[in-house]
Amino acid sequence: MSSRRLLWILLCSLVMSNAPASAEDLSGTYVGKANNGAVLVQLVETGDGHLTGRYEQVLLQPSGKIDDMNAVITGAVDGRTVVATIKPSEFLSGNIAASGTIEGRLLHLSGGGYGGNLNLNLLRSDEADFRAQVASLTEQARQINDARLRQEAAQRQAKIEADQLANLQSLTQRMITFTTKADAALPKFARVEQRYHNITQRMRGALAREQSIYGGGQASVARDQISVAINQAAIEANQFHIGIGSSYQSFDFQVGQLERESASANQGCRGARAATASAPVPAGYEVLNAACLRFFGAANEYERRVSDLRAAFSKAAAIWSAERQEQEQIVEASNVAVQ
Question: How far is C-alpha 330 from the geometric centre of its chain's CA atoms?
């Protein structure tokens, strides 16, 4: 991982022994600890002054992620001077060249390579000390991740509530707009009904004129012209009815969509109520509660207008059915008159 390539500087304030190190003192476990990391170095000195061992590094990232690196150590020791090569186990990783000194229980190593610098002060200890620090870092990582998850959950909830409020306000406004348009549309149904009647009346009068004309020649032409006018009036009535039907389909689609959204909004507003001195609205719910109450008021008016419009469309359809039946009879009688 790229984060492992940036070797961090670990500086520890350690109590150092004044006793000089001997060659046999070098073999052992050395541990370094910091607030955000831990290092373990285990060394074995061979009889010919060479070193082997392993290196382990655990680093806690600010994000709560734990990075770890394992490596093999080879090198040499000459009195208190140590020269080592640290080879990470990652595929195609580079080497870290390090050198330092051993002073009593303190091992100091510095160097560079593999994308970063190394500066370590490690105290002779045991692996349990290192593992305890790793456990502490793991717990810190858990706390950081838990805090992040709580924050993300709170942000998601805040977004849900903001979206709910925006959708509720939009729905309320659309219901108010629908109600306003319905108030303007309802009086127009009287003109719709009257137009159905007027077309039938015109057709009825035309048929009477057609039937009053006798003879051939110009009289026959006159009857044909009146018959054409009667059929055109029937077509006009049917086209007008198709337009009313299209308006109803648009109305029905819009109502269906608003009703589905209204059902969902009602679920989200189940706890909304008017505040009283003894039962105030819970803190943080005031804006949504007010929006819900406004929605309830708009929904009541909307439902009344929907009922009124359905009744108006139903009445217009019944009038059309009766008028159409008479218009078809007039067309049939007109066709007979021209024969």
Answer: 62
Q: Is 120 in contact with 110 (CB distance < 8 Å)?
A: yes
Distance, in Å, from the CA atom of 70 to the CA atom of 88, rounded to the nearest integer, reads: 6
Contact criterion met (CB below 8 Å) for 320 and 328: no
pTM exceeding the 0.85 threshold for the entire prediction: no
Rounded-to-integer distance, Cα 88 and Cα 91, Å: 8
148: CB partners within 8 A, 6+ apart: 63, 64
Which sign, positive or negative, has the C-alpha torsion 114, 119, 125, 131? negative
| Distance set, CA 202 to CA 42, 115, 190, 237 (Å) | 110, 96, 18, 11
Largest interatomic CA distance in the chain: 144
Tell me the CA end-to-end span of the chain in Å, nearest whole number: 97
Interval 171-230: pLDDT, tens: 999 999 999 999 999 999 999 999 999 999 999 999 999 999 988 888 899 999 999 999
